[in-house]
């Protein structure tokens, strides 16, 4: 049985300032760097034998992964990028739209503003992670983003269970993988 450890990047300046951060990027804060160091200790302490490493192409994700794995080689993937929020990028989180009735996310709310739909993002993440897990890997660490992870897990878990998971910075979602199916095992959120 293969394992996927899907992790959110460390805290960024935009996270700290309460700004919408999807396709745009901002650097890790000192707290974000510490969070990545704690995640590194988790993998080391639990002797998790990772044999492949992937990151979103966004700097906050690749910087987080580099703190965890040091000089080891990894692959960057556009498929692991965060939700594109269109013209909402860099604006206050207070401007985020209300969830459409019956939706478990923002649905198509960002599409009229040049952004991506929830369904597009979910399909992109699922296709990317399935392709990664179909390679000759056993235990994979992939660093992505909160919104992207939130929509990915909704494909594999009922929303009532997803709603109970905290997607904190450097949260790790552990999945078993077999026959092109992901089975959620646990969410690991460290105390910082």
Automatic annotation (TrEMBL):
SUPFAM superfamilies: Phosphoglycerate mutase-like. It comes from the Bacteria. Signal peptide: none annotated. InterPro entries: His_Pase_superF_clade-1, His_PPase_superfam, PG/BPGM_mutase_AS, PGM_Phosphatase. This is Histidine phosphatase family protein.
């Amino acid at each position: 049985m293969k394992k996927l450890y899907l992790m959110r990047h460390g805290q960024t300046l935009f996270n700290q300032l309460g700004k919408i951060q999807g396709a745009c990027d901002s650097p890790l804060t000192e707290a974000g760097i510490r969070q990545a160091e704690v995640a590194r200790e988790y993998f080391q302490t639990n002797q998790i034998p990772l044999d492949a490493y992937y990151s979103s192409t966004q700097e906050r994700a690749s910087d987080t992964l580099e703190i965890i794995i040091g000089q080891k080689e990894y692959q960057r993937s556009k498929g692991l990028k965060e939700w594109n929020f269109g013209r909402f990028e860099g604006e206050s989180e207070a401007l985020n739209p209300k969830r459409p009735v019956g939706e478990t996310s923002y649905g198509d709310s960002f599409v009229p503003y040049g952004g991506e739909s929830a369904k597009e993002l979910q399909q992109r993440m699922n296709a990317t992670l399935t392709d990664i897990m179909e390679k000759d890997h056993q235990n994979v660490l992939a660093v992505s983003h909160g919104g992207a992870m939130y929509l990915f897990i909704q494909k594999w878990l009922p929303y009532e269970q997803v709603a109970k998971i905290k997607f904190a910075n450097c949260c790790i979602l552990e999945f078993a993988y077999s026959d092109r199916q992901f089975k959620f095992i646990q969410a690991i959120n460290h105390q910082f």
